[in-house]
Task: structure prediction
Amino acid sequence: MNAHPTAPDAPVLEISGLTIQFGGLRAVSGFAERLEGNELVGLIGPNGAGKTTVFNLVSGFYQPSGGTIRINGVDTKGLKPHKVTALGVARTFQNIRLWNEMTVLDNIRVARHGRLGYGFLHAVARSRTYRAREAEIEREAMELLAVFQLDRHAHDLPKNLSYGTQRKLEIARALAGKPKLLLLDEPAAGLNSADIQELIRLVRWIHASFDVTIWMIEHHMDVMMELCQRIKVIDFGETIADGTPDEIRNHPAVISAYLGDDQI
Ligand SMILES: Nc1ncnc2c1ncn2[C@@H]1O[C@H](COP(=O)(O)OP(=O)(O)OP(=O)(O)O)[C@@H](O)[C@H]1O
Ligand SMILES: [Mg+2]
Result:
């Protein structure tokens, strides 16, 4: 027994009272969430519910009108997206955003660099340390591509890959920065059913293999039911339910939000 108990580690993500207003619209209202290390949690809700807005707030793309967001105990108020990235947050986008003029390998390499914080001066100096780090980054990037079975595409441009492969690359790129929190915004969007099955296996494997908390938005309920330990549901920016996949599936407010009141 420890005679000098220490404060428990801060959660990976702690959100309270999160609110954002766009003109007259409260897109997110009083939102709260707490994610611990290595959890796999879902966020669902009908179109326009405010899901992506929550991710935009957490990743620093939007500043909230109210409430707080803490990443590993650090309040992100006022931080720009790259500073939030440096705290260990990575994301993918509802509409894939890859660097299409760079090769697949460079997409991974640049994402890895961001994490290391090697700046312009280092690049100019071309020091021996810099060159050694470059070689190491390239080796690590190739390794990451290999575990994602993307290595044969290393020198291709993302735009020449199939849609499913681009989605996979975007997830690989997000992981290149070794994040503590990975935000996936509709990773199954636009995928065929074979690719969706592969995505489920991929997310499960990432969750088992990487020391990362995964927070996921998805309209494909089968994907969420299969993967998530817990799911939160929002509608018109308000939280309407929170529970296990089974609790969510049978929750009257959730059924009503998706299907309309006359269905229950
Ligand atoms: N930058 C913005 N300016 C004005 N309104 C915005 C902005 N971003 C989002 N909204 C509005 O906020 C609401 C929530 O949008 P959001 O994109 O978060 O929904 P969503 O739950 O991700 O929906 P979907 O499932 O369709 O992706 C919508 O009414 C949207 O029009
Ligand atoms: Mg969205």
